[in-house]
Amino acid sequence: MSSTESKPPVQLSDDEWRVRLTPAEFKVLRLAGTERAFTGEYTDTKTEGVYECRACGAELFRSTEKFDSHCGWPSFFDPKDSDAVILREDRSLFQRRVEVLCANCHSHLGHVFEGEGYNNPTDKRYCINSISLRLKPAEG
């Protein structure tokens, strides 16, 4: 797992984030909240393009790595680049999980799970909140 000890390139105060983000976006991206399953904008989206961090605009995931996991959130089997996200242990909710953060601003994106038979090239599921993302459709 990657460390988040270093400071991210994009650093804003909570007040600055609150100006930039809606209250719902702030709750998920900055307070590690979770949107309700099957309510997100990108859960079933098939549009080709790149998914960016809604907080800072960093490119995180591609539609070519998105798959239907039927879990209620957009799922990807790999990030766009290995250094696009940071993984950190999350022991909240009385369980051990791996949290996924934007490497550029350390905003909460979701969690990654592996070894559950996802039938994809990595056997991983990056379970990401739609509200943490913004889809930039492919041109053409």
UniProtKB/TrEMBL annotation:
SUPFAM superfamilies: Mss4-like (SSF51316)
Record domain MsrB: where: 14-138
E.C. number: 1.8.4.12
Superkingdom of the source species: Bacteria
Catalytic activity: L-methionyl-[protein] + [thioredoxin]-disulfide + H2O = L-methionyl-(R)-S-oxide-[protein] + [thioredoxin]-dithiol
CC annotations in GO: cytoplasm
GO molecular-function term, one example from the UniProt record: peptide-methionine (R)-S-oxide reductase activity
Record's protein name: peptide-methionine (R)-S-oxide reductase
Organism this protein belongs to: Antrihabitans stalactiti
Gene giving rise to this polypeptide: msrB
